Automatic annotation (TrEMBL):
Protein known as: Homeobox domain-containing protein
Residues annotated to bind DNA: 23-70
Lineage, highest ranks first: Eukaryota, Metazoa, Ecdysozoa, Tardigrada, Eutardigrada
Presence of the UniProt keyword Transmembrane helix in the record: no
Molecular function GO labels: DNA binding
Domain (Homeobox) ranges: 21-69
Source species: Hypsibius exemplaris
PROSITE patterns, sorted: HOMEOBOX_2
Alphabetized Pfam families for the sequence: Homeodomain (PF00046)
Protein localization: Nucleus
SMART domains, A to Z: HOX
CDD domains the UniProt entry points to: homeodomain (cd00086)
């Protein structure tokens, strides 16, 4: 069974400090797998010298931004859960 990370926009205070070269690796991994398993997060974190929690927060935030760019709700809500404006 595949575990999934929830998409979640993080506040600027919550975002981990990631160096440019680390972010390049994370973005490359994100392009291949937008929702990695926890084992993959642990491996990437170890390779980059980051804490797995920081990598998880980065992926959740990046996934939320990707969802918004696709016209979806940022925080894992289904499209039909979003209140629609009243029709005039």
């Amino acid at each position: 069974m595949r575990s999934t990370l929830p998409a979640r926009l993080a506040s600027p205070r919550e975002l981990p400090r990631i160096r440019c070269e680390q972010e390049k690796v994370l973005l490359d991994f994100f392009q291949r797998d937008k929702n990695p398993q926890f084992a993959d997060i642990n491996i990437v974190a170890a390779e980059l010298g980051l804490h797995p929690y920081d990598v998880r927060i980065w992926f959740q935030n990046e996934l939320a931004f990707w969802r918004m760019s696709e016209g979806l709700p940022a925080n894992n809500r289904k499209v039909y859960d979003i209140p629609q404006p009243p029709s005039s």
